[in-house]
Design a protein that fits this description.
alpha+beta, 6 helices
């Protein structure tokens, strides 16, 4: 049976049986009818998924893998903060009249920073790292050129050039821009770590997703699948094997109007995990589309429709 199902059921039971309630407290989220949206919550949930063994898609109900991947590509590949660049409506509630969600998610991934310094400008790197820029006035240390990259290109550059660095990470929780975000980032940081397994001819890429808050029913497996897919894509373009995906959630919660749905969901029949792979011809991260995802033998329970979403 799917390991993701086992992890999800254990997590939900732990929240329901051992969690604490926010009922009666001052809370920001509310239901569309204006009623306060209370939760049962658990602090510090950590779930581990070995992507080398199976892809962590729930079988209790179907997770829309291509839609989930489309959202993560919207953030990491398109670096967009506009819902008009997204092929779903999950961000509609937080978009303004122009479709912008403010200086959040993709906007932060696209901001350039001084990544390193160099003695010479290599203009051929533009083909691999589209965001790359150089300070033409040799303003770096010792008269070197400063090299500017955005967070996506910075990750790929480091994994290809310095894979055993312990500093390969992203962070989109930019405090100086929070006041211009229509929703603070929930999944805010990815840390990548490379290991060399004895006897393997290729390196293994592992990743940790840090999330400050998560609606377990609406978003848990969605986030697990999309960042697992991202890890697979980056591993492929860096010629690495994919290893563990670790999901750290500070506040994992079940909303009051989701409790009965969750109780029914975790009692369902479990099935073997689907087989999920990527088009092996893609070697450039910016060439991936949802058409490059291959899903086989995905057997699931009935989909849950019209889940109420707190805003």
């Amino acid at each position: 049976m799917s390991k993701a199902d086992e992890i999800f059921v254990d997590m939900c039971n732990s929240i329901l049986n051992e969690g604490t309630s926010t009922e009666g407290e001052k809370v920001r989220p509310h239901w569309p009818d204006g009623t306060a949206a209370y939760t049962i919550k658990k602090f510090g949930v950590v779930n581990r998924y070995d992507l080398s063994r199976e892809f962590p898609a729930l079988t209790l109900r179907k997770t829309a893998l291509k839609s989930a991947t489309d959202e993560v590509l919207w953030i990491w590949q398109k670096k967009s903060n506009n819902i008009n660049d997204l092929n779903s409506h999950i961000w509609d509630e937080w978009a303004d009249e122009d479709g912008s969600i403010g200086k959040a998610y993709g906007y932060q991934m696209g901001k350039r920073y001084v990544h390193h310094t160099t003695d010479t400008i290599d203009k051929t790197l533009k083909d691999t790292y589209p965001s790359i820029l150089y300070d033409e006035n040799r303003s770096g240390r010792g008269g070197q050129y400063n090299v500017w990259l955005d967070q996506t290109d910075g990750i790929i550059y480091d994994l290809k050039n310095n894979p055993f660095s312990r500093r390969i990470m992203t962070n989109i929780y930019a405090h100086d821009d929070l006041h211009e975000m229509n929703l603070y980032p929930c999944a805010y940081s990815m840390t990548f770590n490379v290991t060399q397994k004895k006897g393997d001819d290729r390196l293994t890429l592992n990743g940790i997703l840090n999330q400050r808050s998560q609606d377990v029913l609406a978003a848990n497996n969605w986030n697990v699948c999309q960042y697992s897919m991202l890890l697979m894509m980056i591993a492929q373009v860096c010629d690495m094997k994919v290893g563990e995906f670790v999901h750290v959630i500070s506040d994992a919660h079940i909303y009051d109007r989701h409790v009965d749905i969750i109780k029914e969901l975790i009692k369902r029949e479990q099935h073997p995990a689907p087989r999920v792979s990527l088009n092996p011809e893609i070697k450039d991260f910016y060439k991936f589309t949802t058409k490059d995802i291959i899903v086989e033998d995905y057997v699931t329970g009935e989909q849950i429709k019209d889940i109420p979403i707190a805003i």
